[in-house]
Amino acid sequence: MVISESLRLVPPITILGREVEKDTKLCPGVILPKHTQVYIPIYILHRRKEIWGPDAHRFNPDNFLAENVAKRHPYSYMAFSKGPRNCIGFRYAEITLRIMLIHLVRNLKFSTTTKFEDIILIPKVTMTYKNNPQISIEVRAD
């Protein structure tokens, strides 16, 4: 849940592009013709209050409790894209992140005076920071 919430707020890819493969009806009167380029703003999607609630900009791992995930559209979270063209390495990335996080938290102590709200994110193709957060890392005593 912590990893998914982190990727929701700071997705590695902020925008996703696709080409429409066939004429697609979105709603009455709106049709996307075949070969139309569509861009999905992942960064904005992951912060929509209509999807994530009034505190969409705040870190809340409970967003990924099973009962909360079941209430949302399956495409409301797209850190690794979705569908047949999603990231081929997403399972490897998720497992690697979990293993790495376990080892880091077990062996190191992290501290910072920076608040998440004070970090200025710049959504480009990949997420960047305007002001890099300062983090202190110490080896944990056994």
Protein architecture, described:
Helix content is 28%, strand content 20%. With 142 residues, the chain is an alpha+beta fold. It has a single domain, classed as Cytochrome p450. The strands form four sheets. The chain has a two-stranded antiparallel ribbon with strand order 1-4. Strand 2 (24-27) and strand 3 form a beta hairpin. The model has no long low-confidence stretch (mean pLDDT 93).
Layout of helices and strands:
Layout: H1 2-9, E1 16-19, E2 24-27, E3 30-32, E4 37-40, H2 42-45, H3 49-52, H4 66-71, H5 90-107, E5 108-111, E6 121-123, E7 127-129, E8 136-139
Antiparallel strand pairs: 1-4, 2-3, 5-8, 6-7
Give me a quick take on this structure.
GO terms for molecular function: heme binding; iron ion binding; monooxygenase activity; oxidoreductase activity, acting on paired donors, with incorporation or reduction of molecular oxygen. This protein is α+β, with helices and mostly antiparallel strands.
Protein traits:
oxidoreductase activity, acting on paired donors, with incorporation or reduction of molecular oxygen; 142 residues; alpha+beta; Cyt_P450_CS; 5 helices; Cytochrome p450
Task: Quickly count the helices.
Answer: 5
Shape: elongated
* Helix and strand composition category: alpha+beta
Whole-Å distance between the termini? 27 Å
CATH superfamily, please? Cytochrome P450
CATH class: Mainly Alpha
**Percent of residues in beta strands:** 15-25%
CATH architecture: Orthogonal Bundle
Low-confidence stretches: none
What fold name stands as the CATH topology? Answer: Cytochrome p450
The percentage helix is 25-40%
Number of strands: 8
In the sheet with the most strands, the strands line up as: 1-4
Family: Belongs to the cytochrome P450 family.
Cofactor: heme
InterPro entries: Cyt_P450, Cyt_P450_CS, Cyt_P450_sf, Cytochrome_P450_Monoox
Keywords: Heme, Iron, Metal-binding, Monooxygenase, Oxidoreductase
